[in-house]
Write a structure and sequence with these properties.
The protein is an all-alpha fold and 538 residues long. It contains 26 helices and three strands. Strands 1-2-3 form a three-stranded antiparallel sheet, covered by helices on one side. Mean pLDDT is 76; it is low at 225-299 and 301-310. Keywords: Cell membrane, Membrane, Transmembrane, Transmembrane helix.
Length: 538
């Protein structure tokens, strides 16, 4: 079965099923299940090996680190929100951020402090931008764009102190070794950065979209604005809720008892008829899944009660500034500290550091100190722990998706995906089209699997091998591979960046990802032309 057209089947199934069901995980699940049965075609074999693929990839050191990091950081954001950090920071910067353009500038400039890892950037800045959007009437879609333009694309271009560097250098080193090339993998990576055309172009496109493109109220944004107006009216009709004491009975707009109480500590309806799913923390699962509650009026009542709870949140900007600044400073210091034992020189120390391990250590210290500060401020320990767990649980959706992506990537490799592609590419692609073809192929793959790392791991050996055999630029081939993976990380509905952004901003994944295709395809088209021109004249 390895090396045949059957290796394409899992990827062919993923996107259509995800679009039809409006659930990313369902498409990945089916792709993984089908791939497992293609490898082990008996009644129990496929199911058993599907579980093995999931578990074996979750327990990979770097993968489990990513899972723990995402959960713990979301938990930290949860307690920062509880203690007034996010609300306080918004109040602090509100004096300077008075326009949509200044808010966009904040989103872009925040890259300098959140460039370590894309999901870290998203879960850090997105809640702040979401709060600003409510005050300034900004489109959540445009906010998501601004954050993602400077997430994976920007971080892929930074050769130091990111979670990407170690992985990117390692796969280049393995590919160079396989091809018999004896060069410094890190120096090859640095030299290939200018050839990551997609990352460079999409950032330029992002500047245009963020600051110069006039916002058109399309259907999705119109519906969003209508919903905002409706919620505002509902809120105005229920101003008496602004000072709801803990555990007070809540009435809906018609005066009917909802048979529950609103818990000011957790911000939820308890012992009542909260039949629409949880609406706590940062994220709205109904929006994420693209579903609409059957009883909109009651949901609006619950939302109004939730807003009453938000009014009671303290305004303490330093509860955000101190933990996040501490995390960033510790990450930079420990990156050098970890690497200086393995290499000589300041910059070489960052190159050799175990970035994911360093980030986890820094995050743990920041969480411990944050808990100590908040306890000193007399926030109940039980409330802090509850909100930490709730914050982490909000990203379980992303964690499940990541586990499925890793497993699908492993199944595709066992099905002979790389070998099949290699054998069908080398025979008919002209040498000058190697880099453009690598980019196009990788962009398609990354869109289907939603993983930049998975695409890089799959295609880097192929890219270096093709470049070596055809005597074309290895640097351009490597740049094309990295660019292609970045395309999927930005544009795919299966991307953890996309799902995390949608989760935090409470927007539907598939519609949002579909709208991102326009700037992504513009940047991709320009990138293909650039690869063609450089290959022809290079």
């Amino acid at each position: 079965m390895a090396g045949t057209w059957a290796c394409l089947i899992p990827f062919i199934l993923v996107i259509p099923i995800s679009i039809l069901t409006k659930q990313v995980q369902s498409g990945l699940f089916v792709g993984l299940l089908v791939g497992s049965y293609l490898l082990y075609p008996n009644i129990l074999g496929g199911a058993e090996h599907m579980i093995k693929y999931l578990i074996s990839n979750i327990v990979v050191t770097n993968n489990i680190r990513i899972i723990v990091f995402l959960y713990a950081f979301a938990g930290l954001v949860g307690i920062i929100k509880l203690t007034g950090g996010i609300k306080g920071f918004v109040h602090l910067i509100s004096k300077k951020v008075k326009t949509k353009k200044s808010a966009m500038a904040l989103a872009w400039l925040s890259t300098f402090g959140t460039f370590s890892e894309p999901d870290f950037r998203i879960v850090t800045i997105a809640p702040i931008m979401k709060s600003l959007s409510k005050r300034l009437g900004m489109s959540k879609k445009r906010i998501g764009y601004a954050i993602e333009f400077t997430a994976n694309p920007a971080i892929a271009l930074i050769p130091i102190a990111t979670a990407f560097v170690g992985y990117m250098v390692s796969i280049i080193g393995q590919a160079l070794k396989t091809s018999g090339i004896h060069q410094s993998a890190y120096m090859v990576y640095v030299k290939s950065i200018p050839f990551n055309f997609f990352s460079i172009v999409i950032i330029l496109v992002g500047i245009y979209y963020s600051f110069f493109k006039k916002e058109k109220e399309n259907e999705d944004e119109h519906l969003e604005n209508v919903e905002k107006d409706h919620q505002t009216k509902s809120f105005n009709q229920n101003k008496k809720w602004e000072h709801i004491p803990p555990h007070t009975t809540v009435l809906n707009a018609e005066g009917t008892n909802l048979k529950g109480s609103f818990n000011m500590e957790t911000g939820t309806m308890v012992s009542g008829t909260d039949i629409h799913g949880e609406r706590t923390g940062m994220f709205d699962r109904n929006r994420l899944n693209g579903s609409t509650p059957d009883h909109a009026d009651q949901q609006e009542d619950l939302d109004a009660a939730h807003r009453a709870y938000i009014k009671e949140t303290p305004i303490r900007p330093w509860n955000l500034i101190v933990p996040i600044s501490l995390f960033l400073l510790l990450t930079l210091f420990l990156s050098w500290w970890d690497g200086h034992f393995k290499a000589s020189g300041f910059f070489n120390a960052f190159i050799k550091s175990d970035m994911l391990g360093v980030m986890l250590t820094s995050l743990l210290i920041a969480i411990i100190i944050a808990f100590a500060i908040f306890i000193f401020q007399r926030f109940p320990v039980s409330s802090l722990v509850t909100h930490f767990v709730k914050g982490g649980n909000e990203l379980v959706n992303v964690i499940i998706m990541l586990a499925l992506i890793w497993a699908v990537t492993a199944v595709s490799e066992d099905l002979g995906f790389s070998k099949y592609i290699t054998s069908h590419l080398t025979s008919w692609i002209p040498h000058m089209f190697i880099a453009p073809s690598l980019f196009i192929l990788g962009a398609v793959i990354s869109y289907f699997i939603g993983s930049s790392w998975g695409t890089w791991g799959l295609l880097m050996p192929l890219g270096v091998t093709l470049a070596t055999q055809s005597q074309t630029s290895i640097l351009m081939a490597i740049g094309a591979v990295f660019a292609s993976g970045t395309f999927g990380a930005f544009a795919s509905p299966l991307s953890d960046n996309t799902v995390t952004t949608c989760t935090v901003l409470e927007i539907e994944v598939v519609k949002y990802a579909r709208s991102k295709l326009v700037p992504a395809l513009i940047a991709a088209g320009i990138s293909v032309v650039l690869y063609g021109v450089f290959s022809f004249f290079g």
